[in-house]
């Protein structure tokens, strides 16, 4: 019998979670009830809030006695993040579902993120129709809008809860009915791509796949870079082709697609062979044209599409980006290669194109050549645009050599 973990605040939303419990059982599955609320639950759970808090080293009773709700919520969130993966590893459940507002969502989603990719995870939330990146992170949580507040049972909420239970139950219960994937498992390579570096990565990907590897491409939009780094840390990859490091433009200058200050660390930390480059370091990303900050109004702007406006990085910005990349790559403890395309870092950083910038490229490259002092890091300059076939195939061949 499949088991669905139902996690939530059984003190303030007891009726809602008891209803969800009934739906799970009606489908012939077991409901594994986890109480994440601060106070006494409306019904007996399988896992108490005391157990959850204790997993993070807290005494929930002592916190409640002080009427310290903020600390209690923090304790429960940290405890869930530690306890839920442990319970899953013990075979206690096959999928997990929860529901709530911003508080309940913040309480349970860190624990969902801590579960392996592929474990069914459904969060019914009042926050699901907005920006959910803070809840989902780099995981595969399914965020379902609750439509109405999670505050009582009514025609709308019951419909949403039923669909959510069917979703998680279907994922957990029907997987055995799918034919197993019999394709030969190949070693995985991570690659980063942007629209303006697509020809390069496509050609490198084809070459690597011809040589027996499977290439997973990550769109360098902030979330893509973060996801790749997380999967490198999780041990998925044999090699990394990080040719599109454009997220550093947004991190340094203030665009909308930054991947955070730890980008470019995971492969080095895990000693994974990698070939890297400077793909799309000619551009900072903003939203529609009228959302570009006023201080950039006179800069070289390019309307990529109605929802994305690109800004050409300046010499000073390229120097700052180069310093950050040199700092990251200098941490390498194993051999890696940095490929510099002398004729442009993107489709539109090429002769006759709107972001063609020989001076900006020179500033970036000189910064990297002066800043990289680690003997493990080899810099290779190539008389190509990044999208030229020779550049792409060279990058793939160098990665294959490093992996051998």
From TrEMBL:
<protein>
    <submittedName>
        <fullName>Uncharacterized protein, UPF0261 family</fullName>
    </submittedName>
</protein>
<dbReference type="InterPro" id="IPR051353">
    <property type="entry name" value="Tobamovirus_resist_UPF0261"/>
</dbReference>
<dbReference type="InterPro" id="IPR056778">
    <property type="entry name" value="UPF0261_C"/>
</dbReference>
<dbReference type="Pfam" id="PF06792">
    <property type="entry name" value="UPF0261"/>
</dbReference>
<dbReference type="Pfam" id="PF23189">
    <property type="entry name" value="UPF0261_C"/>
</dbReference>
<dbReference type="InterPro" id="IPR008322">
    <property type="entry name" value="UPF0261"/>
</dbReference>
<feature type="domain" description="UPF0261">
    <location>
        <begin position="2"/>
        <end position="175"/>
    </location>
</feature>
<dbReference type="InterPro" id="IPR044122">
    <property type="entry name" value="UPF0261_N"/>
</dbReference>
<feature type="domain" description="UPF0261">
    <location>
        <begin position="186"/>
        <end position="403"/>
    </location>
</feature>
């Amino acid at each position: 019998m499949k088991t669905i973990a139902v996690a939530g605040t059984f003190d303030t939303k007891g009726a809602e979670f008891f209803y969800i419990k009934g739906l799970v059982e009606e489908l012939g599955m077991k409901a594994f009830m986890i109480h994440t609320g601060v106070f006494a639950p409306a019904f007996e759970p399988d896992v108490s809030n005391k157990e959850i808090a204790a997993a993070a080293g807290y005494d929930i009773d002592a916190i409640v006695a002080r009427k310290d709700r903020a600390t209690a919520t923090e304790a429960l969130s940290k405890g869930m993040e530690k306890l839920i993966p442990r319970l899953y590893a013990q075979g206690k459940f096959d999928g997990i579902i929860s529901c709530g507002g911003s508080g309940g969502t913040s309480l349970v989603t860190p624990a969902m993120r801590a579960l392996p990719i592929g474990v069914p995870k459904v969060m019914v939330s009042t926050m699901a129709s907005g920006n959910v990146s803070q809840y989902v992170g780099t995981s595969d949580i399914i965020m379902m809008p609750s439509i109405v507040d999670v505050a009582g049972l009514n025609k709308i909420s019951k419909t949403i809860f039923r669909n959510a239970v069917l979703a998680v139950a279907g994922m957990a219960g029907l997987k055995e009915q799918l034919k197993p994937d019999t394709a030969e498992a190949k070693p995985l390579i991570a690659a980063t791509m942007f629209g303006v570096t697509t020809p390069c990565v496509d050609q490198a990907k084809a070459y690597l796949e011809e040589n027996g590897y499977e290439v997973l491409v990550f769109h360098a939009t902030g979330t893509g870079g973060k996801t790749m780094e997380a999967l490198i840390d999780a041990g998925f990859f044999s090699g990394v082709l990080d040719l599109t490091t454009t997220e550093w433009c947004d991190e340094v200058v203030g665009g909308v697609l930054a991947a955070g200050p730890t980008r470019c660390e995971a492969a080095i930390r895990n000693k994974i062979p990698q070939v890297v480059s400077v793909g799309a370091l000619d551009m900072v990303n903003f939203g529609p044209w009228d959302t570009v900050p006023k201080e950039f109004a006179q800069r070289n702007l390019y309307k990529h599409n109605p929802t994305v406006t690109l800004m050409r990085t300046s010499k000073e910005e390229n120097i700052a980006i180069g310093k950050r990349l040199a700092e990251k790559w200098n941490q390498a403890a194993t051999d890696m290669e940095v490929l510099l395309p002398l004729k442009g870092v993107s489709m539109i950083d090429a002769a006759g194109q709107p972001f063609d910038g020989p001076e900006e490229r020179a500033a970036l490259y000189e910064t990297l050549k002066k800043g990289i002092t680690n003997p493990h890091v080899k810099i290779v300059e190539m008389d190509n645009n990044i999208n030229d076939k020779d550049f792409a195939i060279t990058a793939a061949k160098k990665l294959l050599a490093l992996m051998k």
